[in-house]
Specification:
This protein has 4 helices and no strands. With about 80 residues, the protein is mainly alpha-helical.
């Protein structure tokens, strides 16, 4: 249960971070400044912008399957 709560909180934090970035863009911060503030690459920044333009607020969330994959299959755990 704690892992599920961690994943949910992490997704919310990512959502808030991306929304904060868009707010700063509206305040005319330069792309280089945003990359430094959020410690992201040029490609990541533009991915956020593209998803915002295409999907709106929903685009700020991670897509399903974007979390780390399990290291072992159920049969291997046994």
């Amino acid at each position: 249960m704690a892992r599920i709560e961690f994943i949910a909180k992490a997704d919310i934090i990512r959502y808030v971070t991306r929304a904060h970035c868009l707010i700063l863009v509206s305040q005319r911060l330069k792309k280089g400044e945003l990359m430094n503030i959020f410690q992201i690459s040029y490609n990541t920044l533009y991915n956020w912008f593209d998803r915002w333009e295409l999907e709106g607020m929903i685009g700020l969330y991670n897509k399903p399957g974007r979390v780390s994959k399990p290291l072992f299959y159920c049969s291997q755990k046994a």
